[in-house]
Amino acid sequence: MRITNNVLARSLLYNLNNAQQTMYKLENQLSSGLKITKPSDNPVAMENALRYKSTIAHVNQWKANAAEGLAYLETADDTMATISDVLKRAKELALQGANGSVNEKDREKIAIEIGQLKEQLMELANTRVGNKYIFAGTKNVEPYPKGGNTWLGSDDIMKFPVGSALSLEISVNGRGLFGVTEEADGTTKVEMFQVLEDLKLALENSDEGALQQSLAAIDAQLDKVLDYRAQVGAKQNRMEAIHQQLDDTAANLSEFLAETLYADVAEVLVKFKTQENVYNAALAVGAQIIQPSLVDFMR
């Protein structure tokens, strides 16, 4: 095959054009910071990047759910700790009232404080996180409205999704914790409240036998609260583990996305300078083998 000046010129132009296209792509990567600026650059990598982004969005939502669930469970545990403190204070007062050296007037004063403790328990029953009542199940209502005598909470379990097929329980069964039962007349009897009400009456009446019964009843309530706190503690531990796992997963996916989508500026800069040198060298060689007028035209 005869190699003419036209063949050399076409070959030189072809190579220079390829070099310019490569430099153009590298320049785009430097200015945008992305390896892929359009799907045609690397269809497979673009598909992977879109999949990573979608998965990261889901994981971040699950992380947010887990964080909210933890806040919910922590509030429930703190509230039950306060309930225990109230019951312990009631027990201390009951022991004082059961002391034979305490007169009726002092017992009446103790009874007043017991009444205040009962009111506090009723307020704690309506504790909420945001707009969610922690003892109302899935209902968004006060489980024990002030001035009422009916439990409005639900026994349904509230769950938060923390995975593609995983939801964790976060609610505390208020009916079981407070010992709620329905009376024949449609009103509600709350065992925990009733224990303090009975204690108050025993103090007002200086009923020694009733005081002893109240002490035993308070101990039973304290044991029940402890059991519920243990359940919440187990849920907290699992939720914390899930949250940490989701955090690690999000970090790994973000790293994969960065490797797939984002350019290594130092590496791209080296490639760009190398390609620029190749381009300039090709021009210099072309000037030696092709007529100067053609090279001058290309410059």
Describe this structure in words.
The two termini are about 30 Å apart. This protein folds into two domains: about 5-35 and about 265-299; about 70-255, Up-down Bundle (f41 fragment of flagellin, N-terminal domain). The longest helix has about 55 residues, at about 45-100. It is mostly helical. The protein has helices spanning about 5-30, 45-100, 105-125, 175-180, 190-205, 210-260, 265-290, 290-299, and strands at about 130, 130-135, 160-165, 165-170, 180, 190. The strands form three sheets. A two-stranded antiparallel ribbon has the order 1-2.
Query: CATH homologous superfamily of the largest domain - what is it?
Result: f41 fragment of flagellin, N-terminal domain
Basic shape: rod-shaped
Helix share, percent:
over 70%
Main-sheet strand order equals 1-2
What is the fold named in CATH at topology level of the largest domain? f41 fragment of flagellin, N-terminal domain
Bin the strand percentage.
5-15%
